[in-house]
Batch of 4 targets.
Target 1
Amino acid sequence: MENNVDNKVRDTIDLSAQTETSEAAEGSGLPQEELDRLTEELIAAFKDVYDPEIPVDIYELGLIYKVDVSDDRDVGVDMTLTAPGCPVAEDMVMWVENAARSVQGVRDVKVNLIFEPPWDPSRMSDVARLELNMF
């Protein structure tokens, strides 16, 4: 999503780092309560999307790098894959887009598939590590 006069991106929620939503909301036209709700519901929606080869959702795997929410409630998602040659890459982008669109109040959604920085297991949450017996 580009910053422009008509559709300025005001809120960035770095979900992989699980930042405080109050930091993300500085200067936002969205009320804090609405940003909190959108954040919680987007995370819940992403937790319903699974990498078909790994029994852990994409949020806990750390595949969601960044989510931008504009004042107009348009959502931009930067995500990656566990491997660049993933056979379901196009499907995963569509699944993430559909998950974000399922959140009440979200208008438009754009998912960007990025590979820098590359994904590695250190991006997984403790929940994912437990699920995969990686402790």
Note: The chain has one domain: 9-131.
Target 2
Amino acid sequence: MIDARINDTNILSARNAVASGKRKSTEDKVGSSSKRVALELFPTHPSHDGKSLINSGHYDETNVQSVPLETPEDLFDKFLNSQYNTIRESCKKYLNNTYNDLVKQADNRASTICREKDMEMASMKNTISSLQQKLASTNEVINRKNTELDNSRRRNLELEEQVAHYNSQAEVWKEKAERAEEMLWNASVSPRRHACCCEDEEDTALSSVGETR
């Protein structure tokens, strides 16, 4: 906060001195009342080497008149200018400190946000890397399964070709078996027919011999 504070008593005394000075003549302005106000506001004067006339015990009309004093208005203006400069410097200092504090807080907040963002980015990168590894592993499993499926299909095609070949051969062997069975049948039936023919001939011959007798 601003440390500069205006002394109300001094300001009131200065204002009273100004009002009093306006009511008096030019000679009265350097009178005891104005002198007392001036010395209260500025107890030391450059022409007296920083020594106060009141404190030194040499305050009299002669000493005061020998020193060219400023009017109460000038003294009051100087006082206000001094207070203004003091307040102005205090305000500048306060604003500078406040600005520096705000800049420092903003820098700290920005640094904190940057660190948080960096941590989030690092976490996201780790997550992405883990997902990429899982994806690569899954792709390897899929490729292996696809290879196994292709091999199974190829094996099935080979088996189907073998089955077709065996089926064709089975048809051939079936035809051969049927022909062999037919030949065997024919071979087994022909002797029986021949035997039957011979028996018939013998019976005919015997019957003809009996009739002749």
Note: The first helix runs from residue 8 to 23.
Target 3
Amino acid sequence: MTKANTPEWIKTELAQVEAAQARGQVEQASGLRALSARYDTRKKHIVVDLINGSSFSFPPHLAQGLAIARPAELADIEISPYGIGLHWPQLDADLTVEGLLAGLFGSRSWMRQHAAKAGSVKSEAKTQAAKANGAKGGRPRKSTAAPA
């Protein structure tokens, strides 16, 4: 089959493959891929080294599936083939490097539950802020921009 005789649907599929390859090259060049990952027992943090030479760490209690894990389970980390994700096989937990860098430590529903728990905690600071707002007449109203 010559190029002139190639059906249109095949040309469309080939164009999609080329576009996907181009997106993959851009993503690989971004440097947001893990080169290595380990559990630092002294700091009690997961440390991730990226292919661009930078690194970051986070406490495991913030991440979905890692909160109650033992150090040996946290130390058993696998990196996905392209370095875009981290997997803890003993815990059946997975997190993306890009998500972690964006502060996403779990699925959308897990993050929502985590935020709700954090918001429902009572503390002296929250009590003082509520009293201060009450003395000023309650919670400030949302301001609206005046029409021009």
Note: Helices lie at 8-29, 71-75, 97-101, 108-120, 124-135.
Target 4
Amino acid sequence: MFSRTNRPTAGPELAQAPRKPGVASLIAEGVQIKGDLASEGDIHLDGRLDGDLRAGSLTIGETGAVTGAIYADCVEVRGRVTGTLCARKVRLLATARVDGDISHTELAIEAGAQFEGRSLALVTPAAEAAAEPVLSVAAE
């Protein structure tokens, strides 16, 4: 009378469920890495990196330092960066020290942060389209 014949199985629908963001990879204070570092996820750096870094999101703690190029979607700096930084969203907090150029879509700098370099705005396709002049023809 109350029977169920179609039970859920571990088919493609369950196997392809979207991955939820996990915990950031932590590079602790006192850890020193020489070489390039890449992660699709988030990184929290309290140690030192001498090399280029690619990540989805990067937080550099007060004791963290990077000497090299940084490429990420979002970067929050509390520590030190020597080199170029390229990210959609960049936030320099009061304890940050950045020596190098920053390429960004959004840039926020708190009072007390030190920044020596150039700020270069990244051009997005939407901004590029908005900047195109609109031609109008006047009727005579």
Note: The two ends are 82 Å apart (CA to CA).
